[in-house]
Amino acid sequence: MRHGDGSASDRDLAQRMIQSSDDAAASHLDDKYPGAIDAAAAEYRLTSTHRGSFWGDSVTSTADTVTFLEAKKATDPGSPILGWMATAGDTAADGTPQNWGTANVRGVLGTKWGWGDD
Known about the structure:
Layout (H helix, E strand, L loop, with lengths): L7 H13 L2 H10 L3 H8 L18 H14 L4 H7 L32
Helix pairs in contact: 1-2, 1-5
């Protein structure tokens, strides 16, 4: 969001990627900004976060996720990313239910579900 071209289309894609787990949006942004994951990992000192051959086989850890989110809350509480996480849909763009896991923890105000094929 901060290092892209600032276009409305990038913002829309990022919103769809986060709120609806839209794989096509993620793929488009990853194609356009292949260094984004590693750049964010370096900026936020996320030592277990690395881009794979594409966004879908990238990795992160729970600790890195917490580090990133705590930094965003402390330094950029108005970030659209946090707002999109707080308003994520119950169903992903592909029809997969998203309202499981952390969404069921009492007091949670926003969550982003992860997935893995393995």
